[in-house]
Amino acid sequence: MTDQATRAETRSEEEIPGKPTAASRTTLSHIMTGSGTNLLGTVHGGVIMKLVDDAAGAVAGRHSGGPAVTASMDEMVFLEPVRVGDLVHVRAQVNWTGRSSMEVGVRVMAERWNESTPAQQVGSAYLVFAAVDGDGKPRRVPPVIPETERDKRRYQEAQIRRTHRLARRRAIKELREKRVADGIDSSWRCQAASVTGGVGS
Predict the structure, then answer these.
(1) CB 146 within 8 A of CB 21
(2) Is residue 141 within 8 Å of residue 99, measured between CB atoms?
(3) What global pTM score does this model have?
């Protein structure tokens, strides 16, 4: 690639216009039925997590203008049980963007479908999505433009979470490499891509 072509490509990447937070903000609503209950008779956490991922994926796709895949889910918190018959509202928005990644914040609200009481927050989560092209390779995303003071706060908090994610991965990678160097756990692969912190690594 010539220097002129490289400069043109860089200029093109730098000129991706930003999108305001509200442009992709989404709410998905769903009435909970008995098909997804757990042994306690309340809605299974995995069902709620699926709704969270669906809403966050819709937001990531809308913001990035194309396919986006779930890279991680952080801090999935269940505050209150969700019951059969609850009308669940899953509200999601892009909090922060990098070159090809986005943090999506999700708030889960629930109310009785046949009552006029206000919706109650029952859960929250933060997910990281990566925008990909038709070949599954990372592609650029528009920067998010925080509009309100709350959006700006969420953007700053997302930057802190990103710093912690990177530091955690780095610390785990260094620990695994040290254990391999010391002759411990030599069968484990200590590549950066495999550092997830889960039991399957």
Answers:
(1) yes
(2) yes
(3) 0.82
